[in-house]
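Thread: Newbie trying to understand structure tokens

Hi all, I'm a second-year student working on a class project, and my supervisor (Dr. K.) asked me to get a predicted structure for one chain before our next meeting. I've only ever worked with sequences, so writing a 3D structure as a token string is new to me. If someone could post the tokens and maybe explain what I'm looking at, I'd be very grateful. Here's the chain:
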Amino acid sequence: MFGPPGAGKGTQSQNIASKFNLHQVSTGDLLRKEVENNTKIGKEIEKNISKGNFASDDIVNELLQKLIKDNSYKNRIIFDGYPRNINQAESLEKIIKTENQSINHIFFLNVSREIIEKRILGRVICQKCNVVLNNFYNKQEVDDHPCGSQYLFKRSDDNLETIINRYDTYMKKTKPVLDFYKTKSEFHEIDASMKIDEITAKIQEIIEV
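---
Reply by user tm_fold:
Sure, no problem. This is what the structure looks like when written as tokens:
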């Protein structure tokens, strides 16, 4: 599942995972889990982060390989926002081929920066139930949220300057990966300016064909 920050990758991955009994995998979550569990890899990740670097491709690939080898996840994984570069894409292809698995669908949620700005600037997350709402699009739901407004918060990086930088960086860095996959019949570009349920319905329609 590809798409710039705010395109709805996480939301759509969750919806599809729930509908088809799949497992949503975010590399960020995998890395955080290793750090929290204080594993050998987790310590290496922390060392990289403390120096202002990202986790290396080797570390990410190692964690994913372990996950893909797990029979309970076999051919049932949604990769949320991964791979992020050509090296990761090529490594993923090799791992999946080695494990006799396949990539069935590649979705790119394409949406303009203007829409992304409104989505992210209005985004609030419930600390209690983890639901994501939007002050622009779900105002009534925000006002009536059963957990209470005291649990709703905005992420510190949800500001205009960060949004513009993250969007432009993502589109620049991800273009080679999208070009890598675009020639494949499994690639589908989705208009992510649509409503959430419309996007979900479109993805489900493609999967169920």
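A couple of things are worth pointing out once you decode it. The first strand starts at residue 23 and ends at 25. Residues 83 and 96 are 13 Å apart (CA to CA). Feel free to ask follow-ups in this thread.
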